[in-house]
Specification:
7-stranded antiparallel beta sheet
């Protein structure tokens, strides 16, 4: 099993400057390689591949020994492979008839990671194993950087990445052969319904609170963004204002991730099998399409209410939660089943009658056929559990 381990870096001021320069040089390499591909195809109809650009790296490094030549050859190859993957994804979307989205040049704020594809090649995890108290990671051109090593690393370190988030730097280790840590059987199964009022509702009536981290920080974010709007572009004061806004958003993101880990761990400990809806969150949070009224204007389409719901869904972090739950379930040896979400919230868990009118309010469910009443989210979670058990039974019979 492969897992990632993320640790906060504590670089010196010189090391932080070197990390920033390393990231900038890799960004320029990415953009130069993209321009190379665009120009070659536009002027000569030639498609440039990863192998062609990788072969030119030796000359690039020799011509710019104090710039590109300082960094790991392998990390630069990883950056070129990153561009190649972007083109592969572009051509795949073209073949499938989706919106293509041609690869773009990366601005300063859109390139935040440098990867070293092999431990020991331009990088070394735990580079000073004899140190009694501190763990270091060595990165070529940067040196031995202190790591806030708050948990043990399991498995074999395969790749090492350095990532910038605001004013912080992190090291991310991708490890192979990480042993599973199966939990003892809990003797229970559950279906879960994700919501906004409650983050998670289980089929046995349990609830996990939705902390609404973005709402909690909304006043501070609004004040920081108003302050940012008054700053002159390019000034040092604007830079500090941008950093404040970024720090607040980063805090919300960390809080949301922490909540997802705690909620997922509780579920994995309590249930052997968990069924959940296969939600397409990107589709659910799309902006409402405008409806022309035929007179040069537009009809009311509920866009304002929809935008508020979209914000609440994204603040709840359903996608983050489901990703964390999948990883924890795999590690613990639990079974996770995704079911079709169609009609789970409007179908009666007692008689099976399905109608929009069954859900009287957001929280109340009253069946129009049999009169069954229940909490709407609990009723939906029971339907999700039954669908999950049916899928498991069908898979076992196949």
């Amino acid at each position: 099993m492969r897992r990632s381990f993320r640790f906060l870096l504590r670089p010196t001021s010189k090391q932080a400057a070197a990390l920033a320069q390393c990231l900038e040089d890799h960004r320029q390499l990415y953009n130069a390689a993209l321009e190379h591909r665009r120009t070659a195809y536009r002027k000569a109809g030639v498609s440039v591949r990863y192998g062609d650009q990788s072969a030119e790296l030796k000359n690039i490094r020799a011509d710019d020994a104090e710039g590109q030549g300082r960094w790991s050859f392998s990390s630069q190859q990883a950056t070129l492979r990153r561009l190649d993957k972007a083109f592969s994804a572009f051509f795949m979307r073209v073949r499938e008839g989706r919106t293509p989205g041609f690869p773009r040049f990366k601005g300063w704020g859109w390139f935040d990671t440098v990867e070293w594809p092999k431990d020991g090649d331009g990088c070394r995890w735990d580079s000073q194993p004899g140190h009694p108290t501190t763990t270091f990671v060595r990165l070529q051109g940067i040196g031995h950087v202190k790591v806030h090593h708050h948990r043990s690393v399991k498995g074999r370190v395969k790749t090492i990445s350095a990532k910038r988030e605001g004013s912080r730097w992190y090291v991310i280790l991708s490890c192979d052969s990480v042993p599973a840590e199966p939990l003892p059987a809990a003797g229970a199964v559950a279906g879960i319904d994700l919501g906004v009022a409650w983050l998670v509702t289980t089929s046995d009536g349990g609830h996990v609170t939705n902390p609404r981290h973005l709402v909690t920080s909304a006043d501070r974010l609004a004040a920081a963004q108003r302050d940012l709007a008054h700053k002159k572009r390019g000034s040092s004061r604007r830079g500090r204002a941008v950093a404040r806004v970024a720090a607040l958003h980063a805090k919300v993101r960390r809080q949301r991730l922490d909540c997802a880990h705690k909620a997922a761990l509780t579920l994995v400990r309590d249930y052997d099998m968990i069924a959940h809806e296969a939600l397409r969150i990107a589709n659910m949070t799309k902006r409402a399409a405008p409806e022309p009224d035929g007179q040069g204007g537009y009809l009311a389409n509920g866009a304002s209410a929809k935008s508020g719901l979209n914000r609440s869904i994204l603040d709840a972090g359903w996608g983050v939660f489901l990703t964390v739950l999948a990883h924890k379930a795999e590690s613990a040896g639990r079974e996770l089943i995704a079911v079709n979400p169609s009609s789970t919230s409007r179908t009666c868990a007692r008689c099976g009658h399905s109608a929009r009118e069954n859900r009287v309010t957001q929280a109340e469910f009253v069946c129009m056929a049999c009169g069954h009443t229940a909490h709407a989210d609990v009723n939906a979670a029971i339907n999700i559990l039954r669908a999950g058990l049916a899928l498991r039974e069908a898979a076992g019979a196949a």
